[in-house]
Amino acid sequence: MRYIHDYDSPIGRILLASDGEALVGLWFEGQKHFASTLTEAEQAARPALCDDAVRWLDGYFAGEKPDFTPRINLIGTPFQRSVWARLLEIPYGQTVTYGRLAEALGGASPWAVGGAVARNPISIVVPCHRVVGANGALTGYAGGVDKKLKLLELEKAGITADSPKNRGGSLQ
Fold first, then answer.
1. What CATH number is associated with residue 20?
2. Is 68 inside a domain boundary?
């Protein structure tokens, strides 16, 4: 059974999904691949573990660097899960390019990495917004580039709408 909960963030409504033991989804309303891990047999109830996710989001949107990660269960292919695991290594307030992420994955195709990043089912917590284009440009984000920019500004990642900049986070 999956459980869902709506969260009103300062940059748009978010849907949280849990399997009762871990967070399995976190999507901005209407984003690409929205609710991709859900079925019709969902319950609009908030289990206790969603409280951790809500506490994490409350702190994050208050501008605090999270000091914990809610329990998560990443549902995807082995390659997708390996990409998502690398996303969790990108430090708060830093960015990494698709190319650097591909290199860290043993020379995977940046296009394949981009496809996996786009299908990340647990946005923000698994920080796909910290991946940028080769020149630091804000390329793609399933929730919308406007939200990606706001998340990076919140983290003080040194990226603005006028002058995108890659701070070169390390995955080594």
1. 3.30.160
2. no
Q: Which domain holds residue 130?
A: 78-154
Annotated catalytic residue within 57, 128, 131, 132: 128
Token pair of 53, please? 């996710």
Q: What is the pLDDT of residues 62-111, one digit of tens each?
A: 999 999 999 999 999 999 999 999 999 999 999 999 999 999 999 899 99
**From CA 107, how far away is CA 122, in angstroms rounded?**
24
| Residue 86 CB coordination number (10 Å) | 22
Under DSSP, the state recorded for 165 is -
Say what the pTM is: 0.86
Q: Looking at the chain, which runs of residues are DSSP E strands?
A: 2-9, 12-18, 23-28, 42-43, 96-97, 131-132
Asked if residue 4 lies in contact with residue 42, where contact means CB atoms within 8 angstroms, the answer is: yes
- Residue 50 annotated in active site: no
CB 103 within 8 A of CB 130: no
Taking the chain (172 residues) in consecutive chunks of 10 residues, what is each chunk's mean pLDDT? 85 89 88 63 61 93 94 95 97 94 92 94 95 83 85 84 48 48
Tokens of 25: 């989804």
